[in-house]
Amino acid sequence: MLTRKRVFALTWPMIFANALIPLVGVIDTAVIGLSGDASDIGGVALGGAVFAVFYWSIYFLRQSVTGFTAQAMGAGKLQESQLTVLRALLIAMIVGFAFIALKSQIVSLSFAVLQGSEAVESKGVAYVTARFWGAPAALGLFAVTGWFIGAGHMHIALVVQAFLAVINGALDIWFVLGLGWGPTGVAAGTAIAEWFAFVLGLALMLKTMRRAGMGFEHLASWEQLFDPTALKPLFAVNLDLFVRSIFMVIGFNWFINAGARQSDVVLAANQVLLQFIVVWAFALDAFAYTAEAETGRAVGRKSVEELRRAIRLTSEFAFICALGFSIITLLGGGWVIRHLLADKLVVEAALTYLPWCAGVPMLGVWAWQLDGVFTGATRSAVMRNSAITSLLIYLALDAVLAPMGGNHGVWAAFLSYYLARGITMSLGYPALERSVQQNP
Questions:
Q1: Three-state secondary structure readout of 283-338
Q2: 66 phi and psi, to 5 degrees?
Q3: How deeply is 178 buried, as exposed, middle or buried, from its count of CB atoms within 10 A (0-12, 13-18, 19+)?
Q4: How many CB atoms lie within 10 A of CB 134?
Q5: In this predicted model, which residue has the larger pLDDT, 124 or 28?
Q6: In the chain, how many domains are there?
Q7: Distances, alpha carbon 381 to alpha carbons 85, 156, 389, 396, in Å
Q8: Chain segment 368-424, per-residue pLDDT in tens
Q9: DSSP annotation string for 85-140
Q10: Nearest CA among 325, 327, 306 for reference residue 317
């Protein structure tokens, strides 16, 4: 039976591992903030937004691998968990190298849509062009990390993410502060670090499978790998999650572009504050990841009682931590901002909007928890519909509030976006329980 002790044991490695995922972006922003001006920070922000459209739109690989792996483990189908991650790795490599082949066309189209100054856009183009070289490794890491989470090996995911963060930080300092490459150096450092981390993660995953007694003979069987019975639910879930990811990325890029429409300083300030949000979101996602694994096992065992217990125990910790993160941001965020940035105008703007940023953990935690629940249960249609509905609500509110309140209105609409996601997914929970009960 799941206990609070087990929840903590599973979650604490992922708290650190998840905090290290956005640390890549934080390191990029910090290094540029120390060496450059608002246009450099803005260039990394816009370039990162372009890359995020394609990077996070494939995040469904991590989610689907976790859900199907957890359910396979719960049902005792170890071989199917291996086939799941292998299928995801094939998708990651195909899509990742396609991104590299099409990067020039992607850059041209993307910066025809985004709105920034000429200086910001030129630096954004340099950033995203270099960053795409790491796309196959970045997407491959989704699949590998998804397997570790679904199989309950959270501590190994921590090792891989820590390795990525250390390599990325070292290369950023060398390329930007040492060689003066600016946004190009930031992107190149991240891309190289992703390849190193992917190779390490792949090696550790294979080693873990061997120790668990999972043979590899069947992996050479094309009939099993491309079994239509297994592929049909996989593609159905991945399609839903792909649509969901696209709408989520549109929402975040809308927020970034809303700052770019105002000024380079506001864009840079919002980008800095967004790093707080991303760090807290990934840290709180650790509880959602535990919810994914335990929810998946409960669904695999067809137990509503275990499902409810997994949600309750993981959410208790998540809400307590969310409150703590909001307080830390409000009380300590100003100190971090003053020491992170050299541009005084950006510092002043970031401090002005910091209270809005501090509200995100408390408003977003329920949405993140429910993401974990529905991911583990592979009920992706609920997540897809929630993403679409929430984005429409957000855009409507932004259209009203931004003209009235400027960047304060932009932030008010953005916080409403998190609230809308939590509410819309909550409406789909009763059907989840019914579906488990109807399949004894």
A1: HHHHHHHHHHHHHHHHHHHCCHHHHHHHHHHHHHHHHHHHHHHHHHHHHHHHHHHH
A2: -60, -50
A3: exposed
A4: 27
A5: 124
A6: 1
A7: 21, 30, 12, 23
A8: 999 989 988 888 889 999 999 999 999 999 999 988 888 999 999 999 999 999 999
A9: HHHHHHHHHHHHHHHHHTHHHHHHHHHHHS---HHHHHHHHHHHHHHGGGHHHHHH
A10: 325
For residues 170 and 287, give the distance between their C-alpha atoms in angstroms, rounded to a whole number: 29
Question: For residues 246 and 56, is the Cβ–Cβ distance under 8 A?
Answer: no
CB 264 within 8 A of CB 279: no
CA distance 70 to 78: 10
Question: Is the alpha carbon torsion for 95, 106, 251, 36 positive or negative?
Answer: positive
**Which of 30, 304, 335 has its CA nearest to residue 186?**
30
Report CA dihedral (243, 245, 251, 256) to the nearest 10 degrees. Answer: -140
Task: Note the residue count of the chain.
Answer: 440
Instruction: Look up residue 148 and give its amino acid.
Output: F
pLDDT at residue 248, as a whole number = 86
Q: Rounded to an integer, what distance in angstroms lies between the CA atom of residue 345 and that of residue 335? A: 16
The residue among 92, 391, 68 whose CA lies nearest residue 244 is 391
Do 157 and 213 form a contact (C-beta atoms < 8 A)? no
> Distances in Å between the alpha carbon of 391 and those of 258, 383, 420?
15, 12, 8
Q: Which two tokens stand for residue 341?
A: 């940035």
Give the residue numbers spanning the domain of 144.
4-437
**Looking at the whole model, is its pTM more than 0.90?**
no
Q: What is the pLDDT of residues 23-61, one digit of tens each?
A: 666 676 677 766 556 667 777 777 777 777 777 778 778
